[in-house]
Amino acid sequence: MAIETLTIKTKDGLNLDLARYPGGGARLPAFCIPGLTRNRRDFDDFAKWLSARGRDVYAISLRGRGRSDYDPKYLNYFPTIYREDVLGALDTLGIQRAVFVGTSLGGIVTMLTNEAAPERVAAAIINDVGPELATEGIVRIASYVGASDGAAPNLDQAAAQIRAVNEVAFPGKDDAFWRDFARNTYRELGDGTWKLDYDPAIAAALKESGPAPDLWSAFTSLKNKPTLILRGAISDLLTPEIIGKMRAVNPAMLVSDVASVGHAPTLTEPDAVAAMGAFLDEID
C-alpha cells in the first residue's frame, strides 16, 4: 500500500501535515485526529488495518505537532481552532462525510466538529475521553507537557524518557514497545539526537486557556450518531463515573473497555480492534 503524504493550508496560512491510506474508496472514509502532544504517526498501524477493510483513512497532525507548522500565536492551540482546521481540511480534501476517530484531544475535536457541522460526521469512535475530564488525569498530563526541552541523545534515551511519563498507562510493556512509542512521539534530528515532536508552547496554552470549552453540549450532539467510546480500563482521564453520566445523556452509545491500559489505548490492542471491527462493520 502506498501511503500518500499531503500538505494543506489552514485559513490563517499554516501548513498541516496529513497522511492518506488508500482503501479503495468503496466505503465512507475515516478521519483520525490525535491527542494533545501527539501526531498522525500514532494512527499508522490502525490506519493500515482499517484501510485493508475497504476505507480510505486520513490522519492529521494538528497545528504545532509533527510536521505541521507551529503557530506563533500559541493561544490558538485550543480545541475550537482545531475544529476549524479539521473542517477546512475536509473541504480541501473534498470529504463530505467521514467516520471520525479521535484520541483524547482528537475525541474532543470530534465532538466539537459534530456540534458545528453534524452533516460531516457519519459516526464517531472516541478514544478515552469524554465531555468531562477527571482531575487526576488533567493534573498528570499538565505535569509533563512542556516540562522539559524534550531532547534525547539517542532513541534508547528517548524511549526511557517517554516510558517514565507513560508507564502508568501501559504497565508491563517491553523495551520494543517503548522504542516504537518514542519513534511516534519524538523526531530524529540531523545530528542523530531526538526531540519531542510538538511545540512546547502548547503547555502555555493549556495553562492559560484550559484543556477545553464546556463539552456537554458537543457530546449531546452525538446522541443520534453511531458512537463507540473506547476506555482504557485503568484510565485516569475517563472514569467509570464519567461514563455513567455520558450514558444518561446517550444511552445508545457503545462502550468498550480496553484491558490493562490507561490513557489512552493505542487502538492496536485486541479489545480495541474487536470493538472497532464490530462497530465499523455496521457503518456503510
Element layout with pairings:
Layout: E1 4-9, E2 15-21, E3 30-33, H1 44-51, E4 57-61, H2 79-93, E5 98-103, H3 105-116, E6 121-127, H4 135-144, E7 151-152, H5 155-166, H6 175-185, E8 186-188, E9 194-196, H7 201-209, H8 216-220, E10 227-232, H9 240-249, E11 254-258, H10 270-281
Parallel strand pairs: 3-4, 3-5, 5-6, 6-10, 10-11
Antiparallel strand pairs: 1-2, 2-4, 7-9, 8-9
Helix pairs in contact: 2-3, 5-6
Description:
This protein has 284 residues and is of the alpha/beta class. It has 2 domains: 4-134 and 202-281, Alpha/Beta hydrolase fold, catalytic domain (Rossmann fold, 3-Layer(aba) Sandwich), CATH 3.40.50; 147-199, no CATH class. The protein is 37% helix and 19% strand. The protein contains 10 helices and 11 strands. It has helices at residues 44-51, 79-93, 105-116, 135-144, 155-166, 175-185, 201-209, 216-220, 240-249, 270-281; strands at residues 4-9, 15-21, 30-33, 57-61, 98-103, 121-127, 151-152, 186-188, 194-196, 227-232, 254-258. Strands 1-2-4-3-5-6-10-11 form an 8-stranded mixed beta sheet, sandwiched between helices. A 3-stranded antiparallel beta sheet has the order 7-9-8. Strand 3 (30-33), helix 1 (44-51) and strand 4 (57-61) form a beta-alpha-beta unit. Helix 2 (79-93) crosses helix 3. The longest helix has 15 residues, at 79-93. It starts with a strand and ends with a helix. The model has no long low-confidence stretch (mean pLDDT 96).
